[in-house]
Amino acid sequence: MRVMRAEPGRFNGVTRSSVGTAWRAYDLQLAVYAALLATVGLVMAYTNSIEAGNAVLASGTVFTRALLWSAIAIVAFLLLTAFDYRWLKSLSWPIYLVNLGLLGMTLAIGDGVGGSARWVSIGPFTFQFSELAKILMTIVLAAYLGNREGRLDRLPSILGAVLLMAPPWALVMLQPDLGTSLVLAAIAAGMLFMSGASLRWLAAMALGVVAAVPIAWTYVLKDYQKERIASFLSPCTDIRDSCWQVYQSQTAVGSGGFTGVGLTNGAHLRGGFLPVQESDFVFAVLAQELGFLGALLVFLIFAALIWRILVAGWRSRDPFGQMFTAGLASLLLFQVFVNVGMNIGIMPVAGIPLPFISHGGASLTSIAIGLGVVQSINIRQAKADW
Hints:
The chain has helices at residues 19-22, 28-51, 62-82, 86-90, 92-109, 129-146, 155-173, 178-194, 199-211, 213-219, 223-233, 244-255, 267-270, 282-315, 319-344, 361-381; strands at 10-11, 14-15, 120-122, 125-127. With 386 residues, the chain is mainly alpha-helical. The strands form two sheets. The chain has a two-stranded antiparallel ribbon.
């Protein structure tokens, strides 16, 4: 698909006089689905604050922090929607270097648990730059792959994308953050697949990754990461040890039944049995309190949102737009699948948040930035005949 050359008063077929008309291509459905999911996230933050015994609007509670980050995410979404996304293609290399700098700074001055370095304190805020790295690398890879349209059946082009992802992936692994490193790999894989890259070479690279698993197990993974994977692969005999999290999560999900026990009525929350219930295991809270019906509704909204993101890519006449939407859809799909999977015991615990719903300002803001870029693509590159 060939991108039109810019002419005076015209950029990729969009005249200055048609900017107002282009806003008609704004995808209201996408915005509504995102708002619904963010609202579910606020509801989960509310119930977590109530059942932790805190005054909901007290300073520093999960709910008040969620409100603040929701406001920041809305501003980020609106700013990126108004911003001409085509500048991102020109700025892809500076963006890449800034991303590496932020991840390097996290290793140097970041805080974490158990010797890790994942969060950087900025005034009253704590931010996880590895979450932002997911969106920044989607931008960088979209620019790279878009510039090589029609040449992605060649191994050098595919390896170039892998080499671009390798440094940020390594910096994230050094934090260590296995979950985010897996998401970065999923983004790259999804974008390469959707770009039409040679399946033969992609399959060969996948086999290479499988062959490298013993090396990663021996020299890369930390002991607690190995323990989580081992507990997933073998039946649990002692729920007090590495299986405690998954056991409690499965119990909470099962106790929700078809319609749930009702908001703020989750016994696992009140008893403190469910670990990190506001982030990694928030889906167990949702399933217990809203039941199968509530969880199903959330899945349907996620599916609708991902569909609208992909529609934006199909509408776009710009390879960058097509690649960016493929990357963002891959990010959301992978995170939903893995987070829900680890809550019900079909995936190992990897510390991957549930988009919009897990408490975390960096995750919500980063996704809002990504969706803002999608809307910018919609209003500036949509085909008039769609």
